[in-house]
Design a protein that fits this description.
CATH architecture of the largest domain: 2-Layer Sandwich
Shape: globular
Radius of gyration: 20 Å
CATH topology of the largest domain: Ribulose 1,5 Bisphosphate Carboxylase/Oxygenase
Number of strands: 9
Helix content: 25-40%
Strand content: 15-25%
Strand order of the largest sheet: 7-1-8-9
Number of helices: 8
CATH class of the largest domain: Alpha Beta
Order of helices and strands: HHEEEHEHEHHHEEHEE
Distance between the termini: 37 Å
């Protein structure tokens, strides 16, 4: 029989049966229950409809810009030509390099959480895709991480540009901030995230695109969102 901690048992007691409870009340409850010593992430999880009327299942992979950021601190690496190294350093990236950075990557040294690459360097980094891909570090033009405008890419990631991607079952999750964020800022991020996902619905999918919405924290329990 599975045993839960006393803290978690108390959280379970706060489960809400009212399906009409709105986002403001849910977020305030989640923040109240984020009673660990660290600044827990506040996360939104969606169940989306992947079934298209024609063709295969839809897959969503893109980036969304949250107005108040996520509170996550990324360590950004920039892979660029030697003549762009100084520019990249001034952009605020923590790790910058050219062929020397590729050598570090090839040896399995990943001391960064995001990798930005200029187009000319993609040919050199491509062979390391099998290592970078599973770690979510492979640069991708659609995600804004393959670009000649390194400064803009670094700034966007540092100010809240977040990658989102559904799994094969239609689950889609993202952080919308931290428990230290005000309720108002979390609601702004939530609304932006939901509105963005709704706009990504392709015309080939009929009916509601977002089936269910849940809010939780890193060490908390999930609450289903009713009326937005």
């Amino acid at each position: 029989m599975k045993r839960y901690s006393k803290r978690y048992q108390k959280l379970i007691e706060t489960k809400i049966k009212d399906k009409k409870i709105g986002i403001k009340d849910i977020i305030e409850l989640v923040k109240k229950n984020s009673n660990t010593k660290f600044d827990e992430s506040i996360d939104v999880s969606l169940k989306i409809n992947l079934k298209q009327s024609k063709g295969g299942d839809f897959s969503l992979r893109t980036v969304v810009k949250l107005p108040n950021g996520t509170g996550k601190k990324n360590k950004i690496a920039v892979l660029c030509e030697p003549e762009k190294v100084e520019e990249a350093k001034k952009s605020g990236a923590e790790v910058v390099g050219s062929d020397d950075l590729i050598e570090k990557i090839s040896s399995g040294k990943f001391n960064f959480t995001k990798l930005i690459c200029t187009p000319p360097m993609m040919a050199k980094i491509g062979k390391h895709g099998k290592v970078l891909g599973p770690k979510g570090l492979m640069p991708n033009p659609k995600l804004g991480t393959v670009t000649n405008d390194v400064s803009k890419a670094v700034k966007e990631i540092k100010t809240g540009l977040t990658e989102i991607r559904n799994d094969k079952d239609g689950n889609l999750a993202s952080s919308i901030g931290r428990k230290s964020f005000s309720t108002e800022k979390l609601i702004e991020n939530f609304n932006q995230f939901i509105d963005f996902v709704k706009k990504e619905k392709p015309a080939t999918i009929k009916g509601e695109f977002i089936k269910n919405i849940f809010i939780t924290s890193t060490m908390g329990i999930s609450y289903k969102i009713g009326a937005k």
